[in-house]
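Q: Can I see a sequence and its folded structure?
A: Here is a first one.
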Amino acid sequence: MVKPVPAGSPTRISVLRDNRVVPLIPTARAGKATPQPWRHIKLERHAVGAIEIPEHVHGEFCLHLQLSGADDFEWWSEGRNRVERTAPGAMILLAPGTRDRLHWQGASERLILSFEPELLGDAAPSFRNRWSLDDPALAHLLRGMEAERASNWPLGALYADLLGLGLARHMLQRHASTPRRFELQGKLPMPKLRRTLEFMTDNLNRDLRLEDVAAEAGLSPFHFAREFRATTGQTPYQYLLDQRIDRAKHLLRATDWQVGEIGQQVGFASPVNFVRAFRQRVGATPGAWRSGSF
């Protein structure tokens, strides 16, 4: 039985090698190492040369999505060895406890995502390692997750959590040894949900009405508010307020604007309302939060 891999860096995908927890990919990442808002997931983008990754053990699920390059790679695992042909869109799926060694025979760019078994809920089923996986829907989902990471999470932690749930649902329904149903609450389709989140994020400085946001989803205000809450666990107003406070924090850090001016920029009609909402959400006034004196 393979021992659990100890926790590694909170911002790096790590494996156990020679009894040490080390990054899976030894080269510097193409993306900047910044905290990621989703739970139980790490996502990295790498430009990988013709290198060998020495034998290691995975403590979490690991997914590779090849973005460029078409050179073969060779793997060794569980007494087996094989050379795989690759192309953009080729994927690898490895389950926790996998011990393997890799050799990439040429340069490639790839997304690597690891996730903890907890993402799949209690009593998750077993999964079979796939060294040559063809799953366009999963590849599309990973590219969407990378787009959020690369643009610094413009739709916030709520949308990141929903993407994580979408990943869990796909894995359980398509790749578990015994497929399982994984129903997300609510009926608001992800494309409509994304449009409404983008609309709210792009219009934080406006006094938005519920019917304005509902129109982006093609629904009545009542139907939209009900489905939005059932899908996300938040009301549209709570999401909008969270995004306004997050944008205000960014402006407090990045500019020397007056507090009242920042409040206007993020959609508060008066400085008093802004200060009150900020204090309720953060536990300090904007001025105290900016100076760090709380």
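Q: Show me another, different protein.
A: A second, unrelated one:
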Amino acid sequence: MNSQDSSNIYPKAKNPFDLIITKYVWSKHFGSNHKICILTFPDSLGKINTIAPMKIKDDQISFIGDKNLFDYQDLIYSDKYEDKSSSNHISEIFSEINKMPNVKNLIFESVSEQSYLIKYFKENNDTLWKFDITFEDVCPIINLEDSWENYLSSLKKKYRHELKRKIKRINSSGKVDHYELVGKDEIMKNIDCFFELLKSSSHAKSNFLTPEYQDFFVDLLDNLSGYDDLVRLSFLEFEKSKVASSLSFVINNTRFLYNSGYDPKFSDLSVGLINHAYSIKLSIEQNIKIFDFMRGDERYKYHLGAEDTRLFTILGKRK
């Protein structure tokens, strides 16, 4: 799998996990026991408009990546992809999989409810495969307003007053600064601080950030941070100390919040929540249309106005 292929895919990506470079970095770190299988399908003019980036291990085929690290997984479609093409190409994908005699099982994880795959499997039966679609998780999102004031007004009264109170309290307690790093050198210079805040914020996140995952993140950010301000590393400072941080990707007018952390010594000032609120404010100022908190139903996401979208797992087994 060649990372240079990403230059042709990048404009078509709906999210950072669609990028071939992201899949290449995952394969480099975790794919040694898998066979990489990338299927491509052209339009009527011969230009590729659908890509199925998959991996095979034993008798199972799945998307390149895994749900611990990839919040969304799907086929990759061109910008000009039409709904009427979906059934044909998905049928072609399974026609190709059927030619792989060792593949008996399929698992497509983290598939958005908006995916063509979900529609296809709800509307079509396959003569050779039995498919089940099961609920996996939620990805809460905010459709952003055109101003910070309108965003605050859109919140439920209780949450709006609570957020304003918390912002007022931290600003009356000391000097507060919130900023975003986009340059590769700045991001890589400060990434260790992000990791420390991530690990310190909870035992679950500390256990999540294994040395293997940390190496993957460093490699991924090193590769992605040169792509048109795609990577955003935000910090909240209180009295000149970094007390909260978040790592996001911005693509297709959407900010995808990948992970975050904070210093628990400042939890009484709600620094984690305020860091997210200021990132929402910054997104509005940057004319970003959607703030995607991605996987997980943590309460703070709903306090900040998010509403659920759903992820599904598609399981397939040869009949």
